[in-house]
Structures are given as C-alpha cells and as structure tokens.
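Issue: ligand-bound run for hypoxanthine - logging full I/O for the record.

Environment: standard queue, default settings, no custom constraints.

Inputs:
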Amino acid sequence: MRILSKAKVAIIGGSGLEDLLKEAETIRVGTPYGLPSPIYVGEIDEETVAFLPRHGPRHAVPPHQVNYHANIFALHLLGVERVFATNAVGGLNKRLKPGALVIPIDFVDFTKLRKGTFYDSSPVTHVDMSKPYCLEIREALITATKDIGENVWDDAVLACTEGPRYETPAEVKMLQCLGCDVVGMTGLPEAVLAREMEICYASLCYVSNMAVGLQEQQTISELTRIGEEKKLIIRRLLRKAISSLPNARSCVCSHALEDAQL
Ligand code: HPA
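Outputs:
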C-alpha cells in the first residue's frame, strides 16, 4: 500500500484534543483491518501533526471495541513515525492521586479478547519489548512536564485490563502485588502494534480516579471532571514535547523489525 507523507507525528487520545490543531483537515483512511477513527491533520507550531480520537469523534467506541489495528495501520499509511498517546488511568499506587500525571516505563497486558499483533502468519515475528515505550518520546514528555513546572511519575508500570467494567477489589490487590502502579483499558495492544510498525510510541497518562477499594466509588462524573481539568495542561505539555523532538530518530523503535523475523 502506498504511504502518504501527511504527518510524521501523531497524537492518539480522548476526544477534545483536536482543537490543538490549526486548520485541520479530516481524513478517512481505509485499511486492511477496517475503518479507523477519523484522523485530523493540521499544524501545531508549524509542525504537521495528526490527531486520532481513539474512541471516535463522539466518544462512542468503548475500550474493548476500539479498532487498534486499523488506527495504527492508518497512521502508518499517513507516514506517521512517532505517536504521543494520552490515556486515563486509575491509580493503584496509593501515592498517585486523581489528577497526577504519569509516563509509564513498562506495562503488563491483562487484556483477554484483543488480537495483540499484526503478525498472525509468515514471517513469524517477535518484536523486542525490553524498552516497551520509546525512550525519545518519553524524554520529550518528561522534559516538557519539568519545563512547565508539573510533577510527573515517570517510572510507572501500567496494567491494561479488558474492561469495560472496572476491576474488582481482589483484582486491584493482585495488580498492586504484581508491582503495577496504574490501571487502564486502552494502552494495549496499541503500544505493541505501534512497535510492530516501527512507530515510536509513548504514553502520557492522567490519574482520573484511585482504583477500586482505594476510594469510595468509581463514577463517570469524576472521570470526566478530572479529564476536563487536565485537558489544558495535557495540551500545553504535548505542544512543548512535540516541538522539542529531535528531527531524526535514534531509538530502537525505528528498526524494531530488524532481526525480529524468522
Ligand atoms: N480501571 C481501569 N481503567 C481505568 C480506570 C480504572 O480504575 N480509570 C480510568 N481508566
């Protein structure tokens, strides 16, 4: 399939971040995996950036139904080489309160029903996950948070569950025992699919609630309130991080398929 040179950098996130882009055009891309979310392409500080709302433009697609394959493949077709993801998460680590910013360094995949790879047949492919998130994108995000005077937890382990329900108290205890700091429903297989496409990928998470059992009740109104509160800071951060990226990639992601296929 032909790769278009539409944008080299993309943001995958919740709806509402599209107004970060100036004069955006909406692009619908067909992929062998079905139709992705509409993708907006526009300018952020003179850099062309694509924005893909993971749950669709009206947040109608639940986490377990997101077409992660179509979304990542569509970004690949647009020429995207680097992805900044944003994710809402619950805090498992008691030091992470609602509103905290987190940049995961690693993940544990507890999804059950999602296909986790682009490589279902030959060539048999095993991508290296010793650095699960792109070190260059992480660095850009960490520096940007420091520059704007925000605290960030930058060595968190993210657990990704199938959802759409929240965890039970016993599940939360298990995830804590396993060393996970935050739990969300959207981080995977997105991160793995990006690596399989040799796309750099890191995530900026915000804690929208403390996990089940650590606070009284999980409510959607709290989740959306914290999301609204953090939106401004996340936009400032992404803008700063994107403009600070080095031009050329010198991380492992750009050659993830080298020596990974039989
Ligand atoms: N659990 C799973 N996913 C989440 C949570 C949670 O507590 N909060 C936001 N996404």
